[in-house]
Write a structure and sequence with these properties.
308 residues, binds ligand TD3, alpha/beta, 8-stranded parallel beta sheet, TIM Barrel, binds zinc ion
Length: 308
């Protein structure tokens, strides 16, 4: 089917209390893995591409691969979403290429500046049915022993979130609640600030996004390490914690790291087991299949399986 905005996908998730994965991709194999997983699980999907992905593959290339796969799997609802767009120019590049959803990440600016830029982008995108995500607070782990003032300085302020959503007109919001990008998210226990999340949901009602949501599954990191990799001290958001977040209002679960680890775990395995292999398909094929497996498992955890 034609690519649709993420708004409609996430509205259903919000209404029915589940989450949809936003899976990052910048090459053919990852896109194929995401689509085949969605096909097997009967799950809607959001394809996330960062500015780095647009630079690596080219925005037109990303769009045409996603479009081709979306035509092939015509029954799957798909949105193509710009992840962490940093300015108007990046957003316009994505819009011109055919993306159907964008994130403007101006969370590192003071509130008023974040609001001003976000509002401008909502004004442009909503005229062409492109959904907009924005972020409040900073994406970083916050340990238990820090003061309330320190927590407040980093994580989302629920009252501010309410004003921001009303004033900006965004479609979904990423509130910082203690996660961070990458494979090393928590020093101590893995947890989210669920009280804060609950308040943001009560005050805004819109779909909420969990960034830095990868789980760093043991099965994948074990293979990664068995074949010479090093992920010492890596820790993600456990499935049980993800489920709690979804119960309290998360509807979009951003996932990049898990797919990267899975892919490279299998690449490591294949190249070390078959040292004279020179056909890239023999290396990337099994890696692609393993990414598919990891995504399927995740779709079950998020509750997006069986929604189409
Ligand atoms: O926006 N993203 C994807 C890009 C982060 C770079 O890895 C996320 O929030 C996903 O975060 P992660 O690292 O947990 O998959
Ligand atoms: Zn993110």
């Amino acid at each position: 089917m034609p690519l649709i905005s993420a708004k409609s996908i996430l509205e259903d998730a919000n209404k029915n209390g589940y989450a949809v994965g936003a899976f990052n991709a910048n090459n053919m194999e990852f896109l194929q893995a995401i689509f085949t997983a969605a096909d097997s699980e009967k799950s809607p999907i959001i394809i996330a591409a960062s500015e780095g992905a647009m630079k690596y593959a080219g925005p037109e290339m990303l769009y045409s691969m996603v479009k081709t796969l979306s035509d092939k799997y015509y029954h799957i609802p798909v949105a193509l979403h710009l992840d962490h767009g940093s300015n108007l120019s990046a957003v316009m590049t994505a819009v011109k290429a055919g993306f159907t959803s964008v994130m403007i990440d101006a969370s590192h600016f003071p509130y008023e500046e974040n609001l001003k830029l976000t509002k401008q982008i909502v004004g442009i995108c909503h005229t062409v049915d492109i959904s907009v995500e924005a972020e409040l607070g900073r994406l970083q782990g916050v340990e238990d022993n820090v003061s309330v003032a320190e927590r407040d300085a980093v994580l989302v302020n629920p009252e501010e979130a309410k004003d921001f959503v009303l004033a900006s007109g965004i479609d979904f919001l990423a509130p910082a609640i203690g996660t961070s990008h990458g494979a090393f998210k928590f020093k101590g226990e893995a947890k989210l600030d669920l009280e804060r999340l609950k308040k943001v949901k009560e005050l805004t009602g819109i779909p909420l996004v969990l960034h830095g949501a990868s789980s760093v599954p043991e099965s994948a990191s074990n293979i990664f390490e068995e074949f010479g990799g090093n992920l010492k001290g890596a820790k993600g958001v456990p499935y049980e914690v993800l489920k709690e977040g979804i119960k309290f209002g998360i509807n979009k679960v951003n996932t990049d790291t898990d797919l990267r680890i899975a892919f490279l775990a299998k690449v490591r395995e294949s190249v070390s087991k078959d040292k004279s292999q020179i056909d890239p398909r023999k290396i990337f094929g099994p890696a692609r299949d393993y990414v598919t497996e990891v995504i399927r498992e995740r779709m079950k955890v998020l509750g997006s399986s069986g929604r189409i």
